[in-house]
Each structure stands twice: as structure tokens, then as C-alpha cells.
Amino acid sequence: MSSTPSGSPPHLAPLVVPEFGLDVPLAVALWLVPQGAEVIEGDRVVQLVAGGVTIDLEAPVTGWLAACLADEDEPVATGTVLAEFAPATDARGAA
Description:
Distance between the termini: 22 Å
Number of helices: 1
Number of domains: 1
Radius of gyration: 14 Å
Helix content: under 10%
Structural class: mainly beta
Largest sheet: 4 strands, antiparallel
CATH architecture: Beta Barrel
CATH class: Mainly Beta
Shape: elongated
């Protein structure tokens, strides 16, 4: 149970919808980065829309976007995991 399959990163960093304190539904508006792309911590990777407000979320780590877990136009809620990122040290280790 403690081993990971060959080529798989041992852990992934999630991108979670934070609490915005808004009383309107949230939805994924646009992915700014495709799955598999390299990112630097702080890069804008996805836009959410809440009413007439657009909110950009940033990559939590430097590495690559391993998985997009929500589609564009999909409703999301606080706490929803939108994506998973493989940290750069893991991406190099898997090569």
C-alpha cells in the first residue's frame, strides 16, 4: 500500500474552490491552462464565474497540471477539487 505505480507521482496538490462569501452559484468559466501543461506557482489556471464576477484561481505549486476534474460551465461549490497538480520535484522524479 505504501508504494506507488511506476511513473505515477507519489502525491498531487489539489486546487480547491475557496470560500468567497458570495450568495450566488459558482461555475467553471474557462480553463486557462490545458491538462498536462507546466505551471509556476501563482499562474492563473482557471476562471470561475459567480453572477457577473469572474474569479481567477492560481496554481498551488510549480509543476504540471495532472488532471482537470471539472468541465467548463460545470457548477461548483466551496470545497470542490477542481484540479490536481504534480509538484515539479515529482514530475522530474517520474521521468
